[in-house]
Amino acid sequence: MRIDSIILHSIYNYNFMLKQKVGFDTLDKQYVYNLSSRGGALPPDYTNVKTMALMSYNAYLELNDTNWEKVPYNITKPINNDLDNVRGYLFKKDNVNIIAIKGTTINFVPDAFAPLRRTELVNNTKVIKDYYTFNQEAFNNPTVKNDRFNDNMFFSCCYYKQSKDYIDYLNNNTVCHTERSKKICNKSCYTESTNIELNYINIITSIIENMKKDINFDTETVVFTGHSLGGFLATVLGMKYNKQVISFDSPGTRHYINLLNLQGNTEQIYHFSHTADSIAHGHCGVVCKIWGYNLDTECHIGNTCIYDSKKKLGYFDGIRYHQLKWIIDYILPHWETDFPECVYNKECKERNCEKWEYD
Length: 359
Fold this sequence. Notes:
The protein has 359 residues and is α/β, with parallel strands linked by helices. The chain has a single domain, classed as Rossmann fold (3-Layer(aba) Sandwich), CATH 3.40.50. Helices cover 30% and strands 19% of the residues. An eight-stranded mixed sheet has the order 2-3-4-8-9-10-11-12. Strand 10, helix 12 and strand 11 form a beta-alpha-beta unit. It starts with a strand and ends with a strand. The N terminus is likely disordered.
């Protein structure tokens, strides 16, 4: 089955057609720094960041997948206990352990129709075109439903009021069931979310505690990485275990973490993204909501490292630019000579959540 690439391109860039304005706070220079001056077991330079991106991409795949990207680590082990929730791999070399966590698998257009790229002659000129073929694996992936459950919990302005998926899980807190003002969000309902068994933070923490039987977290180097939802989970683990994090294009991590009042070292956390990724910057809007995703947040804990792909490469907003393979192929190569600046505790407003009150 094929879909006209022009129509699909329009769907991918729906927000652009609506002419939604995307802005970024001006970087406060007092927080911009030389990467080598900050914490972290591995320098967050081009080589290490590229390796982490490839590992994060592999976290979406099976070990025998033909799309698997080679990385300079000689041991690779799955970390997941089940197939329908948190998944990923441990990459190990000597006493260096990289734990890569899978992000969201989705079953709508961007994943369900995988691009098949080929070169054609148009007026005697070679032109690269994308054709889209149905990807049955995306519809069959067992993590899809649970990934979305956690996406909406972590990245909504007020998860329990924006989705009905959580009502049955919040029976211990009657406030969460009370129909008050639609724009008042109770912080206790966020605290209550930590008691939900399906909360991926609980699942990944259990996985890591089990891994500590084989990895000495005190003497060995441990780094967490991941893309999108996986990047958020990596961030939480970095704070919990005081370890370095290199994550990619996650929606905002600060909102949920602050509402839970989670504490931990954030100086070793590096979040990389680019400006054309509308999911990472809270501008997926109507497109995501149609498919049941409330991806509202954009602000981050720790170091924010944003590459201006719109200004430097001429891209415009689109959810297709959230795909990690796209980022690896078309964004990351530019970083070898034009590495993004990182800003610690970057000033940022959750623009989609400004009308909400939190008590």
